[in-house]
Design goal:
alpha+beta, 42% helix, 4 strands, NADH Oxidase, single chain, binds flavin mononucleotide, 14 helices, globular, four-stranded antiparallel sheet
Length: 327
């Protein structure tokens, strides 16, 4: 059966809704059904009673672990939570998100910076990649596996919600799941058959997030204003965050306060879990330029180099970096 006509319509509608830009694919292009499903992505937090077949889940794990992997090092793991008592303790620990308790499937996606170190030990080699780069590699692998799982799950009719809240209490989650040093949760994922329809939430227009040859934010204020209005009309936020600090906004703009929201402070503890010998300093006072540009992470040990030095050496090597945003 040729489903391209239908997929092309779905794509045109979803791109309009998502980005405010109707993208009409060539009707004979390949892969339209997959692309339509990606564009129609929606997060779900409510599911019906239907259990998710174990065979289907195994297939989805296989699809997820088929993701590309940095250096073919395969540094991601999934913990599937099947013991109701463990499911319950995780829901209790996170608190405030009761849908986690009711989710038919609960998974914890982990970065694994430990396996390669162990392999190196067993084979009598030194582990040379014990740097922040290792943390990035591991996190990218795990994020890809999460994303691909989500895509495969949605293609098979499941609805999912990732849960970064597992990072609020990395030590407790690690204890419950028996995660050793070097293995750290990047996000949970709840899944099941959705009990209602999803909705395509508007994203920033491609003119904000897609750049050609050079980074460009010249029109950012106008584009964000337009997005704010579109977002408010199509999918207004039903709650506002940190109202006690910032007050209630009649027209809540896209993460209007996002820049000021207090992020989670567990990040340094995570990075230590990623690799015992990477030492990440606490967030510094955000008073100077370098702290603003790189507020959370600062490598200590090795050869101490301030962020300002790093930026200035980057500018020497890649002159276009400086001032490009003023275009
Ligand atoms: C890594 C990651 C972590 C997330 N963590 C949470 C979470 O802890 N709680 C929650 O309700 N939604 C969570 N979400 C879902 C986002 O809130 C959701 O994707 C976003 O609001 C956009 O909505 P949409 O996915 O329906 O387009 C998370 C999404 C991602 C990608």
């Amino acid at each position: 059966m040729n489903t391209n006509g239908n997929s092309a319509d779905r794509i045109a509608n979803a791109t309009q809704q998502r980005f405010g830009e109707r993208i009409e694919p060539e009707p004979d292009a390949v892969g339209l059904e997959t692309i339509a499903t990606m564009l129609e992505h929606s997060t779900f937090r409510q599911w019906d009673e239907r259990p998710v077949d174990a065979g289907l889940l195994r297939l989805l794990y296989a699809a997820a672990f088929s993701s590309p992997s940095k250096g073919d090092m395969q540094q991601a793991d999934i913990i599937q939570v099947v013991d109701p008592a463990i499911h319950e303790s995780i829901a209790d620990l996170i608190g405030g998100m009761d849908w986690i308790r009711k989710a038919p499937v609960l998974l914890i996606f982990c970065g694994n910076g430990r396996r390669m170190q162990r392999v190196a030990e067993w084979r009598g080699k030194s582990f040379e990649n014990d740097r922040l780069d290792h943390f990035f590699n591991v996190t990218c692998d795990a994020a890809l596996v999460l994303g691909r799982f989500l895509g495969a799950a949605e293609a098979s009719g499941l609805g999912c919600c990732p849960v970064s809240a597992v990072r609020d209490k990395p030590d407790e989650i690690s204890e419950i799941l028996g995660l050793p040093d070097g293995v750290f949760p990047i996000a949970g994922l709840c899944a099941g058959y959705p009990s209602g329809a999803g909705r395509v939430t508007p994203r920033l227009p491609l003119d904000v997030t897609l750049h050609t040859d050079h980074y460009d934010e010249t029109r950012l204020p106008q584009l964000i204003d337009t997005y704010d209005r579109r977002r408010h009309d199509l999918a207004p936020y039903n709650s506002q965050r940190e109202v006690e600090r910032f007050g209630w906004a009649d027209s809540y703009r896209w993460r209007a306060n996002a820049a000021c929201l207090s992020g989670r402070t567990s990040a340094p503890s995570f990075a230590r879990r990623a690799s015992a010998s990477i030492d990440i300093a606490r967030p510094r006072e955000r008073t100077d330029d370098s702290a603003r540009s790189m507020p959370y992470w600062r490598l200590v040990g090795g050869s101490p180099q301030s962020n300002r030095d790093i930026r200035s050496s980057l500018r020497q090597r890649f002159p276009l970096i400086s001032g490009r945003t003023a275009k």
